[in-house]
From TrEMBL:
Ranges where the Ketoreductase domain occurs: 4-189
Protein's name according to its UniProt entry: Dehydrogenase
Pfam families listed in its UniProt record: adh_short_C2
Sequence similarity: Belongs to the short-chain dehydrogenases/reductases (SDR) family.
Taxonomic lineage from the root: Bacteria, Pseudomonadati, Gemmatimonadota, Gemmatimonadia, Gemmatimonadales
Native species: Roseisolibacter agri
Length: 247
């Protein structure tokens, strides 16, 4: 990944942080982004300490102007973009869709779907001018098969899968690839309520060929592959990192 510039959203912890670290270890210059400046400063600093190169940029991807500014700043400082990892997402509610209101749905769609689209739209010209680019959208097993209690979130993740395929179709001729990663249950703050619930954990592991829950690094290797030229012929793909849960 030497010389490549990668923007990773939601990179202050969990899966996004692991992806940012993996890309930096492989030689990429990484823009570490999430809503909280102090949080991304800490990750960028740690990457620097480990010999990598990182820049910390605060951005709430649910706000279109901030999503655009994230890409603009990257291009202004580092001359362009080669890789976009749309990893940030929210799931503010749990329960049946009958109980959810429009404001919640709007927020989920703004962060999980419209934000990723805007970051990519803004970065497209730079990637196309370079003749290559890799978009990696972090969806979920819920985007393939809705998870109980996570209805609207699952809908947003299904939309992200479809959006990725659209990008793959429309941008492939310019050399820009787009792929999806669908993590299963990964041990992060985001999924804490699930893996700390003994019943959910037992049920999940009973259905999963690899009988452990994942760690962020289990997703980072796949992201690194998709970001790199090793995946030069891969686009429009939906790649599972779920321990076989959906098989
Ligand atoms: P996490 O550890 O909670 O990290 C979420 C990251 O997103 C943080 O860096 C957070 O930082 C940032 N973030 C939240 N809202 C944001 C916003 N509006 N704009 C920009 N950044 C925002 O979560 P995770 O488990 O690693 O999840 C990462 C991705 O994997 C998500 O897309 C999630 O849907 C997906 N996923 C996770 C699992 C799982 O089991 N963990 C399973 C399937 C899919 P700030 O608070 O500083 O903004």
């Amino acid at each position: 990944m030497d010389g490549r510039v990668a923007v990773v959203t939601g990179a202050s912890k969990g899966i996004g942080e692991a992806i940012a670290r993996a890309l930096a270890e492989a030689g990429a210059r990484v823009v570490v982004s999430s809503r909280k400046q102090e949080a991304v400063d800490a990750v960028a600093h740690a990457i620097g300490q480990a010999g990598g190169e990182a820049m910390a940029v605060a951005c709430n991807v649910g706000r279109i102007d901030e999503a655009r500014a994230l890409v603009d700043r990257t291009i202004a400082e580092w001359g362009g973009v080669d890789v976009v990892v749309n990893n940030a997402a929210v799931n503010p509610v749990y329960g049946p869709v009958l109980e959810q209101d429009d404001a919640v749905f709007d927020k989920i769609l703004a962060v999980n779907v419209k934000g990723p689209l805007e970051v990519c739209r803004r970065a497209y010209a730079s990637m196309a001018a370079r003749g290559h680019g890799s978009v990696i959208n972090v969806s979920s097993i819920g985007g393939v098969s809705p998870e109980p209690g996570l209805g609207l979130y699952s809908v947003s993740k299904a939309a992200l899968i479809s959006l990725t395929k659209v990008m793959a179709q429309e941008w492939g001729p310019a050399g820009v690839r787009a792929n999806v990663i669908c993590p299963g249950l990964i041990r992060t703050k985001f999924s804490q309520a699930l893996w700390q619930d003994k019943q959910v954990l037992r049920r999940t592991l009973a259905e999963q060929p690899i009988r452990r829950i994942g760690v962020p690094e289990d997703v980072a290797g796949l992201a690194l592959f998709l970001a790199s030229d090793a995946a030069a012929y891969c686009t429009g793909g939906v790649h599972m990192a779920d321990g076989g849960y959906l098989t």
